[in-house]
Structure formats: structure tokens, C-alpha cells
Amino acid sequence: MTANSPRMTLRTVGNKVPEVTVWFWIVKVLATTVGETFADFLNDTLGLGLSATSIAMTVLLVVVLAAQFRSRTYRPPLYWLTVVLISVVGTLLTDNLSDNLGVPLPVSTAVFAVLLAVTFTVWRRREGTLSIHAVDTGSREGFYWAAILFTFALGTAAGDLIAEQVGLGYLASVGLFALAIAVVALARYGFRANAVGTFWAAYVLTRPLGASLGDLLSQDRSDGGLGLGTTGTSLLFLVVIAAIVVHLTRSRVDRPVLRGHDA
């Protein structure tokens, strides 16, 4: 079959993305939460400021992302470090638009939604699939990480929009996004909806879920949070992420497997 065929067989050895297991979603939510709290920790708690924090984290992301591209196989520590850093940078991207440039949250939410849609459209047309079981070329990996960045930026903007500007609050926002993810899961496993489409829908929704959860845990009680602070929340979640990544590295339970995939 050609690369543009709706179904194809994957050469597992080249795939750079982990198998989607329960561990995948756990670490994803933890990483999205850290993206929110660690950005606030550097910016506000340490007092680095938004611009300095953005520059430092972007440079670090570029270095780690280059290492990820050079790697020939999926390596849990490198992959998840990239996800955590891109989560932080995605948060900072939205914060810069809102705080430094004064872009309203509805506008930034719409902009990132369009950018994500364009990324998916170009990716699908050029590569013939959006499946994460086929991230086995440099081009596909480039599209993959671009999509990840836009999902994080979009999720941050959407989470802040719902929780703060609309006034739903952090706890209610966590419940809302968790319910939306449950609906996607029901569509996939109850009604056999498209695997690729439901994966990306859930991936997008876990970002505002994690952002709202991070704000709920870290923000002051007077602001609707639990008052744990950005330092404690970030440290706790980073330790848990590290422990899970060690487990994944040793057990290899999320190694890519040979399979066909849907477009």
C-alpha cells in the first residue's frame, strides 16, 4: 500500500511515540498540570518574570526537542521530558499573549484552535494519516510535536477562559473537562468512533483539565484554589512523573508494538 492509503502497516522499530496505555494518560495529565504550575513557579514564585522565563524554557525545549529528533527509537525519559517542557512553553505562549500583548482569551483560544486545525489538515494531506502509530519519519514527528504544542497552548487558553473569565471556577472546570473526556471515551469504546479522532479529542481536553487542576491545587483559597502553592504542587507532580517514567523504562509496557492503524 502507498503512504496515502487509508490503512497501512507500521514499521514499529521507527515509531517515536509510546503505546497508549493507562500510564500514557496518567503521565499526560500530570505533565499538563506541571506545565501550568511550573510556569507560574518560575514566573511568579521565583520572580524571573514572564519574558525571562519564556526565553529560558524555550531554549531548553529546543535543546531537548533536538535530542528527541535525533533519537531513533522511543525513549521514555526523553519523550516525557519533551512533553513536560512543551507543556510549560505552551502555557507561557498563552500567558505572553494575554499578559504582555493583551490578547483576550476568547481570541487566543480561537487562534490556537485554528492553528491546530491547520496543523492536522496539512499533516493529513502530506502524510496520509494522523495516527500516532505512524510517527516514524522526521516529517511526521515534526507535525506531531507542532500539534502537541498547539494543544497545550489551546488548552491553557480554554481552561483560563472557562475557569476565570466565564467564572466557572477551578473545581467546576475540572469536573466539566473530565466529563467531556468521559463523553469522548464513551464515543470510542461504546459506539466505536474513529480511534484517531477520539485520541486527539481526548488529548486536547486533557490539557485544560490539567491546567484547571493545577490552578485548583496551587492557587490561594481566596482565588478559589486549595492553596498548596506552585512550589509544592510542581514538586509533587514532577516526582510522580519521574517515578512512573522509571517504571515505564524498566517494564517497557508502553513500547510501540507492531500493528495496523487507521488514518
UniProtKB/TrEMBL annotation:
A matching Pfam family: DUF347
Keyword Membrane: yes
Xref: InterPro entries: DUF347
rRNA-binding as UniProt keyword: no
Keywords for this protein: Membrane, Transmembrane, Transmembrane helix
Transmembrane segments: 20-39, 45-66, 78-97, 103-123, 143-162, 168-187, 194-214, 226-249
Protein name per its UniProtKB record: Putative membrane-anchored protein
